[in-house]
Amino acid sequence: MFSGIVEEMATVVAIEKKQENIDFTLSCSFVGELVIDQSVAHNGVCLTVVKLTDNTYTVTAMKETLERSNLGLLSVGDKVNVERSMIMNGRLDGHIVQGHVDGKAVCTAMSDAGGSTYYTFHYDFDPEMARRGYFTVDKGSVTVNGVSLTVCNPTADTFSVAIIPYTHDNTNFCDIKVGSVVNIEFDILGKYIARLNALSK
Fold first, then answer.
1. Helical (H) or strand (E) element with 108
2. DSSP per residue over 28-74, as a string?
3. H helical segments located in 50-181
4. From residue 56, how far is each of 22, 73, 90, 198 by CA, in Å?
5. Cα distance between residue 46 and residue 98, in whole Å
6. Could you tell me which of 172, 170, 147, 166 has the C-alpha nearest to residue 45?
7. How far apart are alpha carbons 123 and 87 in whole angstroms?
8. Strands 57-61 and 45-52, how do they pair?
9. Residue-wise pLDDT tens digits, 142-188
10. CA nearest neighbour of 44 among 190, 183, 187
11. What are the strands of the beta sheet with 103-113, ordered from one edge?
12. How far apart are CA 1 and CA 97, in angstroms?
């Protein structure tokens, strides 16, 4: 489980395709604190550490993960938002994030908000998935590339988020522009409520 509070940006230093899987090797400041089998979220995708060196670690993404997320678009040198799993006696500064990305969205607009920036994202709308809680609500939570954010101006297939300068500078929102593909995870609470509602009918 994660909180959506990104610790830092890791740098992709190597990419190796192994049949339908891809191994990503990255560097970041907390490599020395990692252990094999540890969970780390990468742009919101929970992946397991499978290899360690003095200054890098490696994770493996399988075919389904690559199809559902933007990890398959990564290149050497790209910056990835990373977060280690939550410590259960800590503060939940973001919201409950599973690290199970629901799909991809595309940035369709950016606008100034008096020092901050509004980003609008479009995702493929599926009525059946919406009935199961895969949607956004005004002032609700959504995870974009692993960042816990508050939704504004949602429609059936779009939503906007306001990014303050600190978040822009300390996550890979600094690289997002119109046309960029991001990972999104809808709020797990909405999914449980939708499921409960379906079972009660």
1. strand 103-113
2. -TTGGG--TT-EEEETTEEEEEEEE-SS-EEEEE-HHHHHHSSGGG-
3. 63-68, 127-131, 165-170
4. 16, 20, 27, 46
5. 8
6. 147
7. 32
8. antiparallel
9. 999 999 999 999 999 999 999 999 999 999 999 999 999 999 999 99
10. 183
11. 147-150, 141-144, 181-186, 103-113, 116-122, 158-163
12. 6
Alpha carbon 38 to its chain centroid, in Å, reads: 18
Asked if 72 and 66 touch (Cβ cutoff 8 Å), the reply is yes
Reported residue count of the chain is 201
Distance between CA atoms of residues 149 and 45, nearest Å: 16
Query: How many C-beta neighbours within 10 Å does residue 91 have?
Result: 9
Q: With H, G, I as helix, E, B as strand and everything else as coil, classify residue 201.
A: coil
Q: Rounded to whole angstroms, how far apart are CA atoms 140 and 186?
A: 9
Q: Is 193 left (phi over 0), alpha (psi -120 to 50) or beta?
A: alpha
Q: What is the pLDDT of residues 74-115, one digit of tens each?
A: 999 999 999 999 887 777 788 889 999 999 999 999 999 899
